[in-house]
Amino acid sequence: MSAEDHYLDAIAALDEGDRETALDAARKVVAIDKEHVDSWWMIADLELPVDSAPNLKQASKSLAACRKVIAIAPERVDAWIRGGRILADELGMYEEALAWWQGCREQAPFEAVPVIEQTAILTDLGMYDLAMDRLNGILEDNLDIGTQQYARVARLHGIVRKAIVQEKSQHFKPWEKNHPGWNALTLRANKPPVSENLLFMLSTVPFLMIEVFISRQIFGEGWGGFCLTSLLILTTVALGMRFSRRIFQSINRPAFNLLRAMDVESSSGYVIIPSEIRTKKLFMFLLSKRPIAYQERLNSIIEQGKKMPRNWKPNIPDLDTHLDEIGTIEDEDGQKELSSYEEE
Predict the structure, then answer these.
(1) Where do the domains of the chain lie?
(2) Over the stretch 9-30, which tens digit does the pLDDT of each residue have?
(3) CB 104 within 8 A of CB 84
């Protein structure tokens, strides 16, 4: 049978909902025609489970197929997007994900999606200056932001802006063994994170109950009293949410720091978290909340036990490769749009 015959079999099996047969047929296609881009894309999709998160093997196979797709057809932005998500969200390979998204931006420099993804990664790694540069670039380059991305950009901007005004010594850098953030982390290592909802219940609900009981005496009955009571309750809820969020961020800062340390381990391949922290409740709780592939990969890194070299720092790729020789984005003609990203 020819490659096209196998491809038609794959399509037919997929239409019938038989993903295993479709995957087997698609593999036969690429065994015959190694540049059959549609079959590689089918493999990238079929290697991932439908109703659950992929494990390390599944995510790796899908990523390998995405690499094949963009090697053959670099304009396939759907492959860039899936590969970037697998690298960062499933595998925790943040340094490689930065370079991946930069490759995407070289293909579509007028799209904001790669810049937003890079900003999110840099923020997670604590590289706030670079993250702010990415956010400023969205405005300077006049990039269009999709409707679904506005909230994310606003949230990232708030986080980065708040971090920028802080003393840089407060920014946890887990690759520095003597960073003071490790001390607070050690003290909280045997306690799981505190829920923001619990903090809201403890700090705000008692006031709401008191307001309900005394509102009739203060505001009286009727629509006027009802409206004033409702306004008071809404104000209390808004203030309570703001207060509980601040307390949540303060109390759980060691948990956020430990998440960053885990991300640095998964990205670098080196072990930096002390064993006395790794065996405590906080680490186990946070690890259980990460994707399956991330957990398997991080456990593999821990088993290998490669210690981080001295003076190690995150390997940030060149984030300006999309610019021309004079430092501006080239003509927009012919650039691809990441429309599929907005649809997902």
Answers:
(1) 3-170+322-343, 181-304
(2) 999 999 999 999 999 999 999 9
(3) yes
Specify the amino acid at residue 97: A
Closest C-alpha among 141, 185, 153, 162 to residue 274: 185
Residue among 322, 317, 325 nearest 111 (CA): 322
**CATH (one of 3.40.50.280, 1.25.40.10, 3.40.50.300, 3.30.70.920) for 3-170+322-343:** 1.25.40.10
Residue for token digits 């490759």? 103
> From the CB of residue 67, how many other CB atoms can be counted at a distance below 10 Å?
15
Hey, is 150 helix, strand or coil? helix
Query: What are 244-297's pLDDT values in tens digits?
Result: 888 888 888 899 999 999 999 999 999 999 999 999 999 999 999 999 999 999
Rg (CA), the chain: 25
How is residue 223 written in tokens?
A: 């629509």
CA distances from 159 to 27, 177, 246 (A): 44, 25, 13
Phi (first) and psi of residue 111, to 5 degrees: -90, 140
Residue 184 to residue 188: CA distance in whole angstroms = 6
30 contacts 6 by C-beta, under 8 angstroms: no
Distance from C-alpha of 131 to C-alpha of 125, rounded to nearest angstrom: 10
3-class secondary structure, 323: strand
**What is the secondary structure of 27-47 as a DSSP string?**
HHHHHH-TT-HHHHHHHHHHT
